[in-house]
Design a protein that fits this description.
16 strands; 12 helices; alpha/beta; 8-stranded parallel sheet; single chain; 22% strand; 6-stranded antiparallel sheet; binds alpha-D-galactopyranose
C-alpha cells in the first residue's frame, strides 16, 4: 500500500440485507452486471461485497478458507475476476472471532493466512465482524492484527471493521488502520431502525473523517420488505415508504457513512433508482474533505426535527433538514446558527438537491414545511447581497 485507499466513504452493494445466506456465483455476477449497466457505477458505486455464509464450514488441511462448493463452484477468484472485468471492485467477509455470526469459520488466529488468501483471490475490501470473539482478548488487538495483516498482504484491501460500536471503538479504530467502522447494531427495513441508527450517531462527527469513516450500517433503500434475510426483515411488513428511504439516504450521505446498497438492484423501481443515483446528494457524501456535519435541533421539537450542516470543500454547505416525527412540521434554519449574521451583508443561495432547482437567495433564515418522515436537502452558497 503506497498511497491511501478509500479517500472518500466507500460506495457499493452488500449481499446481507436482502439475501443473507442465500448467495451464489450467479447472483453476484448478475449484481455486477446491473451495477455496471444501470447507472449505479457511473453514480459512484464501486464495491460488490459478499457478506457472511460464503465458505464451507471447515478450513482445508492447510488451514485455508474454502469457498462453498455449491454456492461458488468456480471458487471466489472467478467471481472477483468477473467483478473486476466490469470495472468494479470486489469485497468479502470474515470475523474477528473463531466463527462468523452465522457459524462459518472466523479468522481468529488465522489473520495473516486469510489476508494472504484474500489477496490471492483479488479481494479489494474486507468486512470484519465481531461474533464468537474469545473474552480473554480485547477486540482492539484483533482489529489491529487484521489491519496489520491486510496492510502487508501485497494488495490494497479496504478494511471495514464491524464491532457495532462496542468496546470504545471510537477511541482506537482510526489508529488500528481500518478504513471504516460500524458504530451501530444491525439495521432492519423499518423506520424505527433507521431512526435509531441515525440518532445514535448524531454528535459523533469528530470520530469520522477521511480514511476512517463511521459506518451507520448498510442501506435498506428499495427493499420494501423483500428478501431472504429474516433478521433484517423482522417486524418489517412492507418495509419503508419511498419518502422514508429518501430521508434515510440523505442522512447517511451527509453523515459520511459508507453508502452500501442492500436491496436487490436487479429489481430496482424508478423511485429507488432516483434515490440511490441522486448525484447532488451523493456529492454531499463524497466531498473530498469529508467533514462531518453539526446538528441544530428545532427548538420546539428537539427529539425529532433537526438540521445537519456540513461544510464542503468549495466553501458551500450541505444541509439536511429532517422530520423523524409523525406530524408535519415547520422548520426554520437561522443563519446566525451557522455563523452568518445579517450584519455580514451576505445571504445564502439555496439549491434544492431533491428537486434539483435553485430556490433563490435567502437572508437571515430559511423556513420550510417538512412532512412526517421527510427531509429537505440543500446546498447553500454564501453570496453578497
Ligand atoms: C452481523 C453484522 C451484519 C452481518 C451479519 C452476518 O450481524 O452486523 O452486518 O454481516 O453479522 O452474519
Amino acid at each position: 500500500m503506497n498511497k491511501p485507499i478509500a479517500p472518500t466513504p466507500p460506495m457499493g452493494w452488500n449481499s446481507w440485507n436482502t439475501f443473507g445466506w442465500n448467495i451464489n456465483e450467479e447472483l453476484i455476477k448478475g449484481i455486477a452486471d446491473t451495477m455496471a449497466e444501470s447507472g449505479l457505477k457511473d453514480a459512484g458505486y464501486e464495491y460488490i461485497v459478499i457478506d457472511d455464509c460464503w465458505s464451507e464450514k471447515q478450513r482445508d488441511e492447510n488451514g485455508r478458507l474454502v469457498p462453498d462448493k455449491n454456492k461458488f463452484p468456480n471458487g471466489i477468484k472467478a467471481v472477483a475476476d468477473y467483478v473486476h472485468s466490469k470495472g468494479l471492485k470486489f469485497g468479502i467477509y470474515s470475523c474477528a472471532g473463531t466463527h462468523t455470526c452465522a457459524g462459518y469459520p472466523g479468522s481468529f488466529e488465522h489473520e495473516f493466512v486469510d489476508a494472504e488468501t484474500f489477496a490471492e483471490w483479488g479481494v479489494d475490501y474486507l468486512k470484519y465482524d465481531y461474533c464468537y470473539k474469545p473474552d480473554y482478548i480485547p477486540g482492539e488487538i484483533l482489529y489491529k492484527r487484521m489491519a496489520m495483516a491486510l496492510r502487508n498482504c501485497g494488495r490494497d484491501i479496504v478494511f471495514s471493521a464491524c464491532n457495532w460500536g462496542n468496546d470504545g471503538v471510537y477511541n482506537w479504530i482510526r489508529e488500528s488502520g481500518a478504513q471504516l467502522f460500524r458504530s451501530t447494531g444491525d439495521i432492519q427495513d423499518n423506520w424505527e431502525s433507521i431512526k435509531r441508527n441515525a440518532l445514535s450517531q448524531i454528535g459523533n462527527s469528530c470520530y469520522s473523517g477521511t480514511y476512517c469513516y463511521n459506518d451507520i450500517d448498510m442501506l435498506v433503500v428499495g427493499m420494501h420488505g423483500k428478501g431472504d434475510n429474516e433478521e433484517v426483515l423482522r417486524d418489517c411488513l412492507e418495509g419503508c415508504t419511498d419518502t422514508e428511504y429518501k430521508t434515510h439516504f440523505s442522512i447517511w450521505a451527509i453523515m459520511n457513512s459508507p453508502l452500501m446498497i442492500g436491496c436487490d438492484i436487479r429489481k430496482m423501481s424508478e423511485s429507488t433508482k432516483n434515490i440511490l443515483m441522486n448525484k447532488d446528494v451523493i456529492a454531499l457524501n463524497q466531498d473530498p474533505e469529508c467533514r462531518g456535519p453539526y446538528c441544530i435541533k428545532q427548538w420546539n421539537n428537539r427529539d425529532n426535527v433537526m438540521t445537519l450542516i456540513k461544510p464542503m470543500v468549495d466553501g458551500s454547505y450541505g444541509i439536511v433538514m429532517f422530520n423523524l416525527g409523525d406530524k408535519k412540521s415547520e422548520m426554520s434554519l437561522q443563519f446566525w446558527d451557522m455563523g452568518l449574521p445579517f450584519s455580514s451583508g451576505r445571504g445564502l443561495s439555496m439549491y434544492n438537491c431533491w428537486t434539483h432547482e435553485e430556490e433563490g437567495v435567502f437572508t437571515e433564515r430559511y423556513v420550510t414545511q417538512v412532512e412526517s418522515h421527510d427531509c429537505v436537502v440543500l446546498r447553500a452558497r454564501v453570496v453578497k447581497l
